Amino acid sequence: MQLSHRLRALAALLAVVGGPLSVHAAQESAASISASSAPASILSSALSSVSASAVSSASVVPSSAPTSAPVSSSAAVSSSAPGPSSSAPVSLSSVLSSAPASLSSVISSAPASVSVSFSAASSASASASISSVASTPISASSAFISVSIPASNASISASTTAPPSVSVSASAAAAGSPSFNSGTGTETGPITVPLSEYTFSSFPVASSTPIPKVFVPVTPANPPPVSSDEIPDFAQAWADAYEKAEAFTLGLTVPEKVNVVTGVGWENGRCVGNIPAVGEWPGLCLEDSPLGVRDTDFNTAFPAGITAASTFNRSLIRTRGAFMGAEFKGKGVNLALGPMMNMGRVAQGGRNWEGFGADPFLSGAAAYETVLGLQSSGVQATAKHFINNEQEYKRTQESSNVDDRTEHEIYVAPFLQAVRAGVAAVMCSYNLVNDTYACENNRTLNQILKGELGFRGFVMSDWSAQHSTLSAVAGLDMSMPGDIDLGSHTSWWGPNLTAFVDNSTIPDSRLDDMVTRILASWYFLGQDAPDFPPVSFNAFNNNDPATNQHVDVQGDHWTVVREIGAAGTALLKNNGALPLNKPKNIAIIGSDAADASMGPNGFSDRGGDDGILAMGWGSGTANYPYLIAPVDAIQDRAVQDGTDVNWWFLDFNTAGAQTAAFGFEAAIVFANADSGEQYITVDGNAGDRNNLTLWHNADNLINAVAEVNNNTIVVVHSVGPCILEAWIENPNVTAVLWANIAGQEAGNSIVDVLYGDFNPSGRLPYTIAKSPSDYPAQPTGGGGPNDIISVPYTEGLFIDYRHFDAQNITPRFEFGFGLSYTTFAYSNLRTSTIAQQDHDSTQLEQAWAKGEATPNVEGASTAVWLHRPAFEVTFEVKNTGPVAGGEIPQLYLHSPDSSEPPSLLRGFADVLLSPGESQTVRITLSRYDLSVWDVDAQGWRKPSGAFQISVGASSRDFRLSGTLPV
Ligand code: NOJ
């Protein structure tokens, strides 16, 4: 009888390791394979001995029905694998079954290539696409091989007597490490899971004796005030939380511990991620997004991260975090899945708008304030996506190949600040980093995050970004949502993790550490309080009266939404057209000014561009409780001013727009550009933007209106930079406002700026170029459906404005740029050192001053002495114009070394001044702010030479300069 079924997943994971963690290698001469997620009977009959010199096959024994629940088993296979110096090929067999399987093996060898073949006997048919096959030597005598075949790419139809087979062969040959940045296109290098040599102990965060007003022992509920000199020291709060967590963990069985670290599976709970209750511990609700509570109602839709960053205003960013945190907690959420801190490496990156722009200092400051704010309200924050998840195209099949210095100074930087702020969780990303998946990457998770940064919280996987059971030893602490593929009802962990712990492949101590980290984070936020709200919504069925209690958590949070929408708007051009002053009549042009015809939430996860654009699309969204369109807000104002209003929303009918705009005192053209997460495609854009042009014919619309109206004002709502060359120099375009994506109050926010109720002070958190090719990096394309592509970060440290500065490329609008309705004068720059009060760290500080790198010990990168204010820059800012307004003075550091980026943002402030008023502005710098990452010493080091600084209104508008007394 012919049996046919769908092979839902096959993943063979073959480890060839000779390092200290190679439990089997150290103890056995034969390799050992443990297989999971397949019925024992299948595995034991399928696994066979293999020889070192020939590829052998394993039988596929189809089962009569797909396995619906995870099962686990283990079996042994003998192998005569060659020793470290051998160049003979080794081969291992894998097994196909109806259930997902994973295999691991330990053989001491250093294979240079791996191949997988899939074959079927004549009476059977089978196919499988292999998504990743690779190996990497991790030392002269060891290497790791990984092979995976995703569920969606494999199917099998076979007779029981002639089953298909899969063979995996690894041939040992040339030594040598894979080269990084080896070129674009299909990844030819290896994909690996280097097994950690890590000891699995929790490490103490370096901490100094508390010094009043400098290092302040704090809890998440009581963070230091915004912009104070106080360095929060969470060490004691973590220690208290760990004590409770360790005590609780002691009483758990292995399966109970496994439940704490494994999600219940996609859509099996009321939140987007769920950890089940264990004993008296209630479990966890994890919910998106970085701009508000997703998938519910009676919540606030806050401005996106990019808009918050554009304010350059720490108080507003902290308040936004605190208000969002209150809403998450109010809905019963334990973990808010934000902030998002990827770096906007490529301008088209689909999810850049969720983050804080293209400068690591700005992004770090915004991440720091957001985490402090969120956690001050009692919700655990999740810093994501760790790391190098910089494009949506092939996000699960791209290796971001990044050098160590760039990784530390650009991409880790915001995560470092989140750790300093006491972030409870970090989400590892979908992509590979230097050929290893980010959720099983010993280097980034164990060494950098938990080691150098001393991160004491836990690492969760992005949804289905986990690729192996052994990811536990590479630093992953929680599997989200718990199943291998969404809804597959299979898991890399669950019973498989139990089996791996039972057979000592994964040490008990590692499982204990995972559980302790998760529980400690819960205690750290005080979520053991009996009055912590229960989950009161259903992310998967908002309309279910039994599970959605419609708890209203909005408070008056709309006020800060409106303010950030205005404060995050940058005035890019103004020939005197703005602010509007009781205009006689105005024409409003463009669909971006209008209400969405399908309602504010008409597109699922905002996956459409219709009407006012106030957030991008994907999981980084929330439902709007309401959405104020510009046309509505302008009309409210028109009632007060007695202004006649006309409008035209048909973007592609430019003749109609001209008719509507002709003869009006001002024509305001609203335009936008949208992007999002790759699981939704909008107008042919699969997450990343296809180009940097404005959407909906906006260039033509603007020029057409400007042809008939010499006071054409342009307002752009955009997820990121756009090319504006088609109309920016048109003399009839008299003003341009860059409004980002502003959340539910978008219309009111822009009216506040247009009419001068809010004097614009927003600044660009990225560069707007004249041409797309001016940017240092483009999205990487190519690759077949099963290929892993290379994304070489060859621009290194030179992302965004650093590249434009170094290459002398004139941008259209530079990073940090934004005008005001008033003017400011800068004067009297002074620099000094800040008196030393921390005698514990005197030696470290003296070593740093001599140019020695910081010690390579756990927590060294977040040590309080390295981050305390050490240098002070003061100057005067005076409002020299006619109206009150806010200024954003920025401090840039210049390296004496011409091979370094010419200017680096290292400080900013926000000042609000009445006409004629002056204020002394003080910006402090830490030793970390002046340091570079020393790749050889693996520490932060002061470069030699003088530290020149400039202070001014943008990255190219310097008004004062000086030298730091270092
Ligand atoms: C995948 C996204 O990348 C992540 O940001 C999000 O939190 C999870 N899905 C859960 O929705």
UniProtKB/TrEMBL annotation:
GO biological process: cellulose catabolic process
Catalytic activity of the protein: Hydrolysis of terminal, non-reducing beta-D-glucosyl residues with release of beta-D-glucose
GO terms for MF: beta-glucosidase activity
Keyword GTP-binding recorded: no
EC assignment: 3.2.1.21
Enzyme class, UniProt record, top EC level: hydrolase
Signal peptide as annotated in the record: 1-25
Keyword tRNA processing: no
Pathway: Glycan metabolism; cellulose degradation
One Pfam family here: Glyco_hydro_3_C
Transmembrane domains' residue ranges: none
PROSITE patterns named among the record's database cross-references: GLYCOSYL_HYDROL_F3
Keywords, ordered alphabetically: Carbohydrate metabolism, Cellulose degradation, Glycoprotein, Glycosidase, Hydrolase, Polysaccharide degradation, Signal
Span of domain Fibronectin type III-like: 887-955
Family to which this protein belongs: Belongs to the glycosyl hydrolase 3 family.
Protein name: beta-glucosidase
